[in-house]
Design a protein that fits this description.
Helix 5 packs parallel to helix 7 and helix 11 packs antiparallel against helix 12. The chain has 22 helices and 45 strands. A hairpin with a 2-residue loop joins strand 3 and strand 4. Helix content is about 25%, strand content about 25%. By secondary structure, the protein is α+β, with helices and mostly antiparallel strands. Bound molecules: beta-D-glucopyranose. The site of beta-D-glucopyranose has 9 residues, from helix 5.
Length: about 950
C-alpha cells in the first residue's frame, strides 16, 4: 500500500503555474487491500516544513492544507499512509514550483521596429559570472515565441504563450534552463504573430485583435556554484536580429525566404511607459498547459488525377508537419494543407478564407522545414515546386495541449471503435490551448456552446481539469468586464454576448468538471462568473420573459428546421429557459457547496420561479410538452419536466415518424440516447447508435471519416462536400458527445453528485447483443475504474469491474435477480476487482415473435409495422390486455373485423417477426 500519482491541481510536478490555494491529490496503490486508517501530507520548502496535516482522515481527491505560497519557490511534498495495524509507508517525493506570482520584475518590456515585416529575434548574451547550478527563465512574449539558448530549443512547447484573453491577463511561462545555461549564455527569442497580432476571428482587417506590436519581457535568474544569485532582465541592451520568416498567422500559415540577406542587428526598443505599466499589471503565471507534439504520422505519397503531389496522413488532426527540402537556391515551394480529397484531388474549399499554407524560398541548402507560428487542421498536404519528393521526406505532427489521457473505451463493433477513435481525435484536434469549434478554417475559436456540449466526453477521456480551469479563468475575466454576460467564444476576439446554452457554458462546464474531479475549488473560483451569467439572463428576462425573445442559436444544425436554417425546429425560447433553469440550479448548488448560504437561497428560489414559468408556458397541466420535436422531448426527459411517460412515448413516436432517424442538432444530440434509456428504450438508443445510414454516427464512419463532422451530412453518400454550406468542418466535436453516453449509459459508469470525483459511482451496464461487448476505463484522482460487459450467449452476461481504493460502486445490474446481489454481499461494492457472471432474467438478444405481449410488439419501431400489416387494427385491443397477453393468445381477435387469425397467417407473421431478431455483432475486434 502506497500513495502514488501525486498531483497538485491535477498537474504532475508543475513549474510556474498559477496555483493559488493548491489542491493536492493522490491515488492509493493497495493490492493487498489494507485498511488505510489515516494519511499525512507534508510540504517543505528550503529544508523547512511549511505544512504538515498530521495523521488525519485526508481527502485524497482534493486536499487543501491552506498553504500561503511564496514566489519563485520550489516545494516538495510526500504523502504517508498508516494502516489499522500500524504499518506506515511514504510516497516518493513530488514537487511543485511557483512562478513570479505578484513579485515585481527587474526586466523591462521590449518591443522593436514594427515596420519591418521580417519577424524579430530578440537576442542577448547573458553576462554570467560563475558556474550555473540552477537557473530559471520567466518569460512572456507576444504574439507567439520560441526560446533558444545556445541553439537549443528551451522546452518542447509550441505556440507559447498560447491563446488567452490578452486584454485581461498575460501569461508568464517559467522554464528550468539550468542545463542550457551551463552550455551557452546566448539567448534568442524568436517571435511570430500568433493570436495577438495576426489576423484571427471575424475581424475584417488583416491585423491582430489584441495588439499590433511584438513584445517581450523576460528574466533569467541564476544560482552560481558559490551560492551567489543574479537576475538578468530584458532591457535596452538586448538586440534584435531579423529572421527569414516574413509572414505568419494562425489561419494563413507562414512565409519564409531563406535567400533574404542578414540585416544589421537593431537595438531593442523599450515599450512605452503607459503600455508597459498596463502590461505589467496584467501579468499572471500560466494556466495553459503546454502545447506539445504528440503522435507522428508517416504519410503515403499520392499522385492525384490532377497530377498533384499530395501526402496523405491517413488521419485528420491538428498540428504541423516536417518536410525535407533540398532544392537549388531561389526555388519557390508552396505547401498547402487540407482535410479532403474530391474526385481524388486535393480540396480545401471548406477552409473559407484560411490560406493554411507554407511558402518557402530555398537558399540552396537542405532543410527540414517545420512551421513554428501556426498550426493546421489537416489530413492532406499538397506540395508544389519541389522535385523528387518521396514519402519519407514528410511527417505529420499532431499538436495539442498536454492533458493526461485517463479514459479509454472499446466495443465489440469495429465501426463503433472507429467512431470512438474519431471522437478522441476531434478532442485532441480541438484542445489546442482552448476548446475550439474546429482546427482548420478561419474560426478555431473557443465557442462556448460547442465546449459545453462536449465537456462530459472530454472529462471521461482525460483529466481535463487543468485545461478547463484555464478556459474558465479567461471566461470569468471576460464576463467581469461585460456585466456577467458570457462572450460567444472565449477568448472572445470581438464576438458578442452569448445566447442561451453557449452562455450557460460558464455554469455547466465548471459543474461537470466538479462532478468528474470532485474538487469544489473549481466552483469556488468560478462562482462570480456563474452567478454573473444567471444575473445577466435575469436582467434580460426582465418582468416580461424577454429571454424567450432574445436572439438564440437554438438546437444548432438540427435537421428538422426549415431548409437552409441552422437553428432547428425546436422552440428556441423553450431551450433557452431550460438552460436558464439548469444554470440557476447549478449556481444554487455551487453556492451551497462553497458555503454561500444567501446565494444558495437566492438562486434556488430563482430556479423555482423559472421552473414554474417553464411549466406554465411549455407544458399542459397533465405534463404534455407543447413543443413537438425530438429535442424537446429529449430535454423534457433529462430535465425532469412534464410527464416522463408522455415524453418517452412522444420521443419514440417522433423518431418513428422520422423513419426511426434522429433529427437533433448540437443540443438535442448530447442527451438523445440518454433520454431513450431513461424512457426505458435502451434498444432504440442502440438502434440509433448502430444505424449506418444518414443521418447517424456510423454513417460518416462508413464514408471514411477519421474525425467527427460538423454536419450529419458534411459529405454526401458519394463523398462529395456539402456545397450548399460554407460552414462545413470535418473536425467539429459536438456530435462526439455520444461518447459520454457510451461511458455513462452503455458501460453505465457515472459520477454521483453527493460524492463527486468518482469517489462513489453508479455502475449500471447495459449490455447489447448487437454491440457484443464493451470495456472502458476511467482514471479519477483516486485511481482507475474499469467496467466491462460481455454477452456470453443469449442469456448470460459477464461484468468485470475494478473499483479503485477509497471508492464505492453502486451496482445496478440489468436483468439480474436478487440472488446475484446476495452473492456479492449487496449492491454496494468497495475497492477491488470483481467478475460478475450471471444468467439474465430474460434473453439479452431481442428475438421478437408472436409470443411477445402485443403491446411490446406494437411499441417497437421495427415490429409495429409488421403487426399492422398482418393484423386487423391490433391497437384496438384494450391496453391492459395488450400488455399482458401475447399475440398468440390474442390471435382469435386479430383477424379481419375481429375474426381469428388463421394458423397459417399467425405462422407467416411469426416468420416475419423472427426475421427481425437482433443479428449477431456485425464485426469483432481482435
Ligand atoms: C461554429 C460553431 C459555433 C457557432 C455558433 C460556428 O461558426 O463553428 O460550432 O458554435 O458558430 O453559432
Amino acid at each position: 500500500m502506497i500513495a502514488t500519482h501525486l498531483r497538485v491541481n491535477h498537474l504532475d510536478n508543475p513549474l510556474g503555474y498559477l496555483l493559488e490555494n493548491p489542491a493536492f491529490s493522490w491515488a492509493v496503490e493497495n493490492p493487498e487491500h489494507a485498511e488505510v486508517r489515516s494519511s499525512r501530507l507534508v510540504v517543505s520548502a528550503g529544508g523547512e516544513t511549511v505544512a504538515d496535516t498530521g495523521w488525519a482522515d485526508l481527502d485524497n481527491i482534493a486536499c487543501r492544507p491552506g498553504l500561503t505560497l511564496s514566489p519563485c519557490t520550489r516545494y516538495t511534498w510526500t504523502v504517508s499512509l498508516r494502516t489499522d495495524d500500524g504499518r506506515e509507508t511514504t510516497s516518493d517525493t513530488a514537487w511543485f514550483e511557483t512562478g513570479k506570482m505578484r513579485e515585481p520584475w527587474t526586466a523591462r518590456w521590449l518591443s522593436c521596429n514594427g515596420d519591418e515585416p521580417r519577424h524579430p529575434i530578440f537576442i542577448k548574451d547573458i553576462p554570467l559570472s560563475g558556474q550555473v547550478v540552477d537557473a530559471r527563465l520567466y518569460v512572456m512574449g507576444l504574439g507567439v515565441y520560441d526560446v533558444y539558448i545556445g541553439g537549443r530549443h528551451v522546452a518542447d512547447e509550441y505556440l507559447a504563450p498560447g491563446t488567452h484573453a490578452y486584454d485581461q491577463r498575460l501569461q508568464v511561462n517559467t522554464y528550468d534552463v539550468t542545463e542550457e545555461l551551463s552550455h551557452s549564455a546566448h539567448l534568442e527569442v524568436h517571435m511570430g504573430n500568433g493570436w495577438w497580432k495576426g489576423r484571427f476571428g471575424f475581424i475584417p482587417k488583416d491585423e491582430g485583435y489584441y495588439g499590433q506590436d511584438w513584445r517581450l519581457l523576460a528574466e533569467v535568474r541564476v544560482v552560481y556554484a558559490d551560492g551567489g544569485e543574479e537576475v538578468f532582465g530584458t532591457g535596452p541592451d538586448w538586440g534584435v536580429k531579423r529572421s527569414t520568416t516574413y509572414a505568419s498567422n494562425i489561419y494563413d500559415g507562414e512565409s519564409r525566404d531563406d535567400t533574404l540577406p542578414d540585416l544589421p542587428v537593431e537595438r531593442a526598443e523599450l515599450l512605452g511607459d503607459t503600455e508597459s505599466a498596463d502590461a505589467m499589471e496584467r501579468l499572471s503565471d500560466r494556466l495553459s498547459l503546454p502545447i506539445r507534439a504528440h503522435e507522428i504520422f508517416h504519410p503515403e505519397l499520392l499522385d492525384t488525377p490532377a497530377g498533384e503531389t499530395v501526402y496523405d496522413m491517413g488521419q485528420n488532426f491538428a498540428g504541423t508537419f516536417r518536410l525535407h527540402i533540398d532544392e537549388p537556391a531561389g526555388t519557390e515551394v508552396t505547401i498547402q494543407l487540407g482535410e479532403l480529397l474530391q474526385d481524388g484531388n486535393f480540396y480545401r474549399g471548406n477552409l473559407r478564407s484560411a490560406r493554411a499554407e507554407y511558402r518557402y524560398v530555398s537558399d540552396g541548402e537542405p532543410h527540414v522545414i517545420e512551421p513554428r507560428f501556426t498550426y493546421y487542421g489537416y489530413r492532406y498536404i499538397k506540395v508544389e515546386g519541389a522535385r523528387n519528393l518521396s514519402a519519407a521526406d514528410c511527417t505529420g505532427v499532431a499538436l495539442y495541449s498536454d492533458f493526461e489521457m485517463t479514459g479509454s473505451i472499446q466495443t465489440g463493433n469495429a465501426l463503433v471503435n472507429r467512431l470512438i477513435a474519431n471522437v478522441e481525435w476531434s478532442m485532441k484536434s480541438n484542445f489546442v490551448d482552448t476548446p475550439t469549434d474546429c482546427p482548420q478554417r478561419d474560426e478555431r475559436m473557443g465557442w462556448t456552446g460547442d465546449a459545453q456540449v462536449f465537456a462530459p466526453t472530454a472529462l471521461y477521456l482525460a483529466d481535463q481539469l487543468p485545461f478547463y480551469r484555464k478556459y474558465l479563468h479567461d471566461m470569468a475575466l471576460e464576463q467581469a468586464v461585460r456585466d456577467g454576460a458570457t462572450p460567444m467564444a472565449s477568448p472572445c476576439f470581438m464576438l458578442g454576448t452569448s445566447p442561451a446554452i453557449w452562455g450557460d457554458a460558464t455554469c455547466t462546464i465548471p459543474w461537470n468538471t466538479y462532478l468528474f474531479s470532485g474538487d469544489p475549488g473549481i466552483l469556488d473560483e468560478h462562482f462570480e462568473a456563474m452567478s454573473g451569467w444567471v444575473d445577466y439572463v435575469r436582467g434580460v428576462d426582465g418582468d416580461d420573459h424577454g429571454w424567450g425573445r432574445a436572439f438564440q442559436f437554438g438546437d444548432w444544425l438540427a435537421l428538422d428546421g426549415p431548409k437552409g436554417a441552422r437553428t432547428g425546429a425546436t422552440d428556441e425560447g423553450f431551450i433557452a429557459y431550460l438552460y436558464y433553469w439548469r444554470s440557476a440550479r447549478i449556481t444554487a448548488e455551487a453556492a451551497r457547496l462553497t458555503g454561500r448560504e444567501r446565494e444558495h437561497e437566492k438562486y434556488e428560489s430563482l430556479a423555482e420561479d423559472i421552473a414554474s414559468w417553464i411549466r406554465r408556458e411549455y407544458y399542459t397541466e397533465t405534463g404534455r410538452c407543447a413543443v413537438n420535436t425530438q429535442t424537446a422531448y429529449v430535454l423534457s426527459i433529462v430535465s425532469g419536466f412534464g410527464s416522463s411517460a408522455f415524453s418517452g412515448k412522444a420521443l419514440s413516436r417522433a423518431l418513428e415518424l422520422n423513419d426511426g432517424k434522429l433529427a437533433t442538432g448540437f443540443i438535442g444530440t448530447e442527451f438523445l440516447l440518454r433520454a431513450l434509456c431513461e424512457a426505458g428504450e435502451a434498444q432504440a438508443a442502440y438502434d440509433l447508435l448502430l444505424n449506418e445510414d444518414y443521418p447517424g454516427w456510423l454513417h460518416e464512419v462508413k464514408l471514411g471519416a477519421t474525425t467527427i463532422w460538423e454536419h450529419w451530412n458534411s459529405l454526401d453518400d458519394d463523398g462529395r462536400v456539402n456545397t450548399e454550406d460554407t460552414m462545413n468542418s470535418m473536425n467539429h466535436y459536438s456530435y462526439g458527445a455520444v461518447l459520454a453516453w457510451l461511458f455513462g449509459l452503455s458501460a453505465g459508469l457515472r459520477p454521483v453528485e453527493e460524492e463527486p470525483g468518482f469517489r462513489r459511482a453508479i455502475v449500471e451496464p447495459r449490455p447489447s447483443w448487437r454491440l457484443g461487448s464493451l470495456a472502458c476505463t476511467h482514471g479519477c484522482a483516486a485511481g482507475t475504474w474499469r467496467v466491462a460487459w460481455r454477452c456470453e450467449d443469449e442469456d448470460h452476461v459477464v461484468i468485470d469491474l475494478t473499483v479503485p481504493h477509497g471508492c464505492v460502486a453502486e451496482l445496478r445490474l440489468p436483468l439480474a435477480d436478487e440472488t446475484v446481489y446476495e452473492k456479492l454481499g449487496g449492491r454496494e461494492l468497495g475497492a477491488g476487482d470483481y467478475r460478475i457472471a450471471y444468467r439474465t432474467t430474460e434473453p439479452i438478444r431481442r428475438v421478437p415473435s408472436v409470443d411477445w405481449p402485443l403491446a411490446r410488439l406494437l411499441g417497437s419501431q421495427d415490429t409495429a409495422p409488421v403487426l399492422n400489416r398482418h393484423c386487423y387494427h391490433p391497437d384496438w385491443v384494450d391496453a391492459d390486455e395488450a400488455a399482458r397477453k401475447s399475440v398468440r393468445e390474442l390471435a382469435g381477435r386479430l383477424g379481419k373485423h375481429g375474426s381469428a387469425l388463421s394458423p397459417q397467417a399467425l405462422e407467416a407473421l411469426n416468420r416475419e417477426l423472427l426475421a427481425l431478431a437482433e443479428p449477431d455483432p456485425a464485426t469483432t475486434v481482435a
